[in-house]
Target: Cytoplasmic protein
Amino acid sequence: MTIYIALLRGINVGGHNKIKMAELKQMFERIGFTRVKTYIQSGNVLFESDEKEPFIIKRVEHEIKAVFGFTISVILRTSSEWERITGECPYSKEEISDAEASSEGESLYVALLLEVPSQERIEGLSAFRTEYEDFRFEGREVYLLFQKSIRNSKLANNVQKLGVPVTIRNWKTMNKLTTLAKEIERKLK
Model:
């Protein structure tokens, strides 16, 4: 069995695509996933399954449409992939500290992509790199570092235009999900 982290894109944002986490947890359990746990209202679900990524994504997206009545993208990572993402941040502690010192709120985010976009799209994102907004691609992830704020960020808005489904989480959420996945793993032993 594999521990997965599912990220639901665009739920509970501005009063749209509302899903209560208790109902979401029940839905995941009904379709056969075990050890289901949700974290905050932005659509982060940890669970265990022996199914493979493409099947899980299609199943969850289909079930959300059937149960809640709207279509959303689901981004999925295994707990080992998640641990790599949080453990191998390409920004140094100094770069992060410098950004945090001048940032209005969180400074480090990760955009998680369903798949790697075309090289042309990746190169196009470079036009939005500034002295206040930087990014680094690592496979299916884009690490985003903001000296000011993610709000009104041209870089963040254009990450959404990479031509593949994407959802963004702040570093605090990323690390909390790592901790929760490790707790599930410990209970398995």
The first strand starts at residue 2 and ends at 8. Strands lie at 2-8, 34-39, 44-49, 74-78, 108-113, 133-138, 141-146, 166-170.
